[in-house]
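User: What would this chain look like folded?
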Amino acid sequence: MDLLLILFGFFVHLDGIPVSENLYWDLIPYFVNSTKKEYVTNVGQTAYLHCRVGNLGDRAVSWIRKRDLHILTVGILTYTNDQRFQSIHTEGSEEWILKVTSPQIRDNGIYECQISTEPKMSQGFLLNVVVSRATILGNAELHVRSGSDINLTCTVTYTPDPPNFIYWYRKGNLISYSERGGINVVTEQQTRTSRLLISRACPEDSGIYTCSPSIGEPANVFVHVLVGEEPAAMQHGAADRTSTVPLNSNLFFWLRSMFISCLLQSEIINLVA
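Assistant: Here's the prediction, encoded as structure tokens.
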């Protein structure tokens, strides 16, 4: 009797309360719209795409790469030779998670969570893989007078989450407060910024300084600590000196040619006269 009621969609009353017996419609699978649709991750950082399905019943959930309609997973089984893709599901849970290990730029695009109904039901999720990198403000080389301060600011861009840490290195060695006094590092995770201050710089502080975040490409700057000469003079002096000689030489030859030309013109005038 219950089966007939389900098939014909009749309504019955139990204890005077109307109850729908059209259970077919109540058991249609659906996507839970509270799930996130866009994901941003760094190159090499594992990504997790969450798809929630209600009333799945005996149907299967698959993950499809939309650009080539390649089936990645069916249920918890992986259907691709690329083992970086894996489906994660806990028995009794509505969540079907696509795990992408070590994502690369080529993995950018839309991935569909698909239910094996007729016709198929699907929901798209956008994965954006970015290259995070550190940037040290200023030029690639910094000239500092001995006794003044070295002040470097590093920012980390194109990162979906703040880095866990930002370390500073000099000549490949981690800068330590125990090396000498006057070293101060201030890191603000939310703004993805780190500042290195070295007071009373000396020539031994010269070298390549590296800002290295927990995620992303590092950045370098070459610091020159100078003694007895203005940094600007040392930075541009060599170019100025090399350009002065040709300038003076050209001027000398130009003046000489003008003088000879004037003499020749004067001689010609005298002959004509």
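Residues 231-272 form the longest helix (42 residues). If you want, I can go into more detail on any region.
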